[in-house]
Write a structure and sequence with these properties.
The chain is of the alpha+beta class. The chain is built from 6 helices and 5 strands. The longest helix has about 40 residues.
């Protein structure tokens, strides 16, 4: 019986470790004081954004973070914690936690991991202020489009001037 329990715990540790390694961002929050309705709303927001939000035992998370190479992260694993794994977009996990914490004072952001670096609450708030991935892509493409349009206009101007010059030469030769 004890062997089965240990095996199940190891499976959970492996699951957490895999999510850490596959995530673009990880955000740890203390949800103490939130009622069931608020927690359901938070879970819904995460689910709609494609963020995996889960509650694990701190001891299992400690093993997973240590195995994943983030032993320093264990200092934040006190009290009731939930963890959000931003699998696709590094901004969404931080943005949802930050916006939810503004409206619900009982949600406390504790720490996070982005690009293999442990980040503080202030850095999570900065990350949350960034536009989403889609908006950033649209801004880059808009900038490129403007540059390309300007380049095309310059080329058209040169071609137009060449046509005017050739037309003037033709008119001069006809006269």
């Amino acid at each position: 019986m004890k062997e089965q329990v240990l095996q199940k715990k190891q499976e959970v540790v492996d699951e957490i470790k895999e999510k850490i390694s596959n995530s673009q961002a990880v955000v740890l929050v203390d949800y103490r004081g939130l009622d069931v309705e608020e927690l359901t709303e938070l879970r819904k927001q995460y689910r709609e954004a494609g963020v995996d939000y889960k509650v694990y035992k701190n001891t299992l998370m400690r093993f997973a973070f240590k195995d994943a190479g983030y032993e320093d992260f264990n200092q934040f694993l006190t009290g009731p914690n939930a963890i959000a794994f931003g699998l696709e977009d590094p901004v969404q996990a931080a943005k949802i936690a930050n916006n939810f914490a503004k409206d619900h004072k009982n949600l406390e952001i504790k720490a996070g991991i982005v690009d293999g670096k442990i980040i503080s609450v202030d850095e999570i708030k900065e990350l949350a202020s960034l536009p989403s991935r889609e908006v950033l892509i649209a801004q880059v493409l808009g900038g490129l489009n403007g540059t390309i349009s300007g380049f095309v206009n310059v080329l058209q101007g040169n071609i137009r001037n060449l046509v005017y010059a050739l037309n003037a030469i033709r008119e001069q030769q006809e006269a």
